[in-house]
Design goal:
Distance between the termini of chain A: 59 Å
CATH architecture of the largest domain in chain A: 3-Layer(aba) Sandwich
Shape of chain A: globular
EC number (chains A, B): 1.1.1.35
Number of helices of chain A: 11
InterPro entries (chains A, B): 3-OHacyl-CoA_DH, 3-OHacyl-CoA_DH_NAD-bd, 3HC_DH_C, 6-PGluconate_DH-like_C_sf, 6PGD_dom2, NAD(P)-bd_dom_sf
CATH superfamily of the largest domain in chain A: NAD(P)-binding Rossmann-like Domain
Structural class of chain A: alpha/beta
Keywords (chains A, B): Oxidoreductase
Pfam families (chains A, B): 3HCDH, 3HCDH_N
Oligomer: homodimer
Strand order of the largest sheet of chain A: 3-2-1-4-5-6-7-8
CATH topology of the largest domain in chain A: Rossmann fold
Strand content of chain A: 5-15%
Helix content of chain A: 40-55%
CATH class of the largest domain in chain A: Alpha Beta
Order of helices and strands of chain A: EHEHHEHEHEEEHEHHHHH
Protein name (chains A, B): 3-hydroxyacyl-CoA dehydrogenase
């Protein structure tokens, strides 16, 4: 299999990341089949794809005309056999459960061509957890996206059984969609950026949860030394406090880390008040026009 | 003691931070007495003060004329009694040894006025380690600077015995020098920014030391998602790999942290080859014109 042989992409999972990767692949000239378990979910997925298409036009990834053409390249199905049969490459963004992912890859393996490449967009798992169940571990690796309208950085990560041909091909595929692949030499939970982000955010949360100083002072401190327009709490508001809580509590429990558990509880306090960040208009800051964006924030 | 009563500042320690805080205080209109243990060290300190003055003119903190006037406001002495007798506020930047700091504060306590305020610029220690030995724990707190030509962020941190009057006065003093004080509610090792920086840098070092991917890919990943002009390894080059190693190995040993020890060893490998970062022209990158500053770095 060469890059030029890749024509049809199976996007599995019609949620946030499935919607983003579907429109990105379609804009890049690929035929896209989006699969999920029900037509209701798929209908919502298509709606989300349109919204993501609009966002990509707004940020200048493509023109409005190119986006309309791309949308025509996307079909949907809840029939797993129909989804698999023409796929040259699979981008999987189904729920974060190794059992579910193993079952999914095992099921499509029976219907896909032998040369079809499998990729997973998992954030919190690693491909070796379900590589054997895919039936083609050498053709499976991670292709992990951050928000495609905010960044072009993607992680390309093998598990111990991934072939170098698969890695090369997936890297070339990412580049063909205008992405910047960060190639990992070996499997590492949390990839590259997410590891750094979580350490950084964990440290900021610890300072606040321990009552060392206020959220505003912590952001001010980072922004003032690093000369950035946003600090860790502003970043968490953009990620979503639910996502931050999910990742923080997952690792806190896995590592039985007392401070991380306190940090998760600190975040939970906001969720209990329906403060999820930018998406609900209120998180650590109030949106639009959060105070950290005001010119006098550093000295107020 | 009120802010307007503060006229004369004793800067203790003629090293990097002493030089920076001396010129900053002088530019801000204070008389400055710089103290260190020998006239040789003080002569080098004065040379460093002049260089820091030039840097401050270059970055626009003050005019060349104001800098020249400020330099006239700085005197030096290796006589601890002469250094202490007129001081209204002390900024201490002597070596990072709690024993040494306790001894120093105890010694000047005998010669200073009863109302004189003591501040420590320690990075790795906390004031409670030597507060009692100062003889005036209520008048002692931390006033911690980052590089004054790169950032105006300063930490103002109490120990459990610091009075609120001392905190208010030191905050006002920092503001009188055009700084942005980050006020901590309680003592915390590593303050605010340094805690976040060390977590972030520690995570980046772990990725490299474990061989997950290259230094360039790690920086690219951070720069590409956060949209910054420098990543963690570029930042370490500007801090100095010796300082990064010192802090990393200090915490690695204190916490008996295996991964942090591996990270310290990774940094040591560069020091052994005389690669200290920007200051030696070679660290993780080659200076001037490091590749991460080139327009094509993200896709090279």
């Amino acid at each position: 299999m060469k890059l030029t042989d890749i024509k049809t992409i199976l996007v599995a999972g019609a949620g946030t990341m499935g919607q983003q990767t579907a429109i990105l692949a379609a804009i890049s000239g690929y035929r896209v089949v989006m699969y999920d378990i029900s037509d209701e979910i798929l209908a919502k997925g298509v709606e989300g794809i349109r919204k993501n298409g609009d966002r990509m036009v707004r940020v200048g990834v493509c023109t409005s005309d190119a986006c309309s053409l791309a949308l025509e390249q996307i079909t949907t199905t809840s029939d797993i056999k129909a989804a698999a049969v023409d796929a040259d490459l699979v981008m999987e963004s189904i729920p974060e459960d190794p059992e579910l992912k193993g079952k999914f890859f095992g099921a499509i393996n029976d219907h896909c061509k032998p040369e079809t490449i499998f990729t997973t967009n998992t954030s919190s798992l690693v491909p070796s957890m379900f590589a054997d169940r895919s039936g083609r571990p050498d053709k499976l690796c991670a292709l992990h996206f951050h928000d495609v309208t905010l960044s072009k950085i993607v992680d390309v990560m093998p598990h111990p059984g991934t072939s170098s041909q698969t890695m090369d091909l997936v890297k070339a595929f990412a580049e063909s969609m205008g992405q910047i692949p960060i190639v990992l030499a070996r499997e590492n939970n949390g990839y590259v950026f997410n590891n750094m982000l979580m350490s950084f955010i964990g440290s900021a949360l610890s300072l606040a949860a321990k009552g060392v100083t206020s959220i505003q002072e912590i952001d001010r401190s980072w922004m003032g030394v690093m000369h950035t327009s946003v600090g860790p709490f502003g970043i968490m508001d953009s990620i979503g406090l639910d996502t931050c809580w999910k990742v923080t509590s997952y690792w806190a429990n896995k590592r039985n880390d007392t401070q991380a558990k306190a940090n998760a509880a600190f975040l939970k306090g906001y969720l209990d008040k329906n403060m999820y960040g930018i998406k609900t208009g209120q998180g650590f800051y109030t949106y639009p026009d959060p105070i950290f964006s005001r010119p006098d924030f550093m000295t107020m």
